[in-house]
Amino acid sequence: MAEILILTKNSLAEQPLQNTLQRLNDEVYCSSRLFFEIDRCSDLFSFFSLVILSDSISTIEISHYWSSLKKSKLPIIRKGNKALVRQSDYDWMIEEIDDWIEDPMSAAEIVDMVTKYTIKPKETVTSKGGSSTDPSPYSDVSYYQFVSSLSSKEQQFLLRMYEAQGETVSREQLCERLWNREPTNSSLCQLSTIVHRLKNKLSLVGLNEQDIKTLWGKGYFIEPTLHSFLEKYEFH
Fold it and tell me: What are the DNA-binding region positions (predicted)?
């Protein structure tokens, strides 16, 4: 069972979403206060598996509290119009947010999206009567959980690293690949965020976040273990 936190300005407006998520038999909490007290109540986020930001909270307000939200290291889903955000001064948020609930998504689509971020490995019994966690690192389940959680830019980054076959790829080359333009301070900063998020997502499914390496002043490379893992499933 997962614990899902909906942050909103109007709890009653989120009732349809709560009803939808409760089909998963998860615990769903809705707060109209916690978002604006996140700095004071940051420890509470450790009790949750996922955060959903309501469209009743403006993009400007989200940007103001964004650094505090990211400290939770939880997957973040945003209700709202992704296209409008892309056209605004807050377009950087597109890649920062893990997923979007947009009209006219069906209840089934929302359930599938949330399950992707809250699914937990099953316990299996070992020959000695104890328990072990499935999936083990680099298993079928961990691969599909990991890949399904990737944003477009994260997938492009990982594909470029996979194509390099263990060679170091400079930050400038990666920025040109991801944004089709000369690197800027903004794109270099976004690249660092993408790498940080990828490492977190590797860790969330039991993979080794250290398989993405940073060579300071040179760029990034991936370890042979991760490359072989992606090659096994014909990552593309």
Answer: 114-224
Give helix 171-179 / helix 152-163 axis angle, nearest 10°.
Answer: 130
Q: What is the mean pLDDT of residues 78-82?
A: 93
Residues 6+ apart with CB under 8 A from 52: 4, 5, 6, 7, 17, 76, 77, 78, 79, 101, 114
**Given 74, 90, 118, which residue is the final one in a domain?**
118
Number of domains in the chain: 2
User: Residue 24 maps to which CATH number?
Assistant: 3.40.50.2300
Residues 67 and 144 in one domain: no
Q: Smallest Cα–Cα separation from 156: which of 169, 143, 140?
A: 169
Last residue of a domain, one of 67, 95, 118: 118
Q: Residue 217: is its pLDDT beyond 70?
A: yes
CB atoms under 10 Å from CB of 227, counted, come to 19
Cα angle 170, 213, 91 (rounded to 5 degrees) comes to 60
What is the spatial distance between Cα 24 and Cα 111, in angstroms, rounded to a whole number? 7
The larger pLDDT score, comparing residue 7 to residue 142, is at 7
Cβ atoms < 10 Å from Cβ of 122: 10
Residues β-bridged to residue 101? 79
The candidate with the shortest Cα–Cα distance to 222, out of 153, 168, 178, 172, is: 168
CB 3 within 8 A of CB 47: yes
| CB-CB contact of 54 with 18 (8 Å) | no
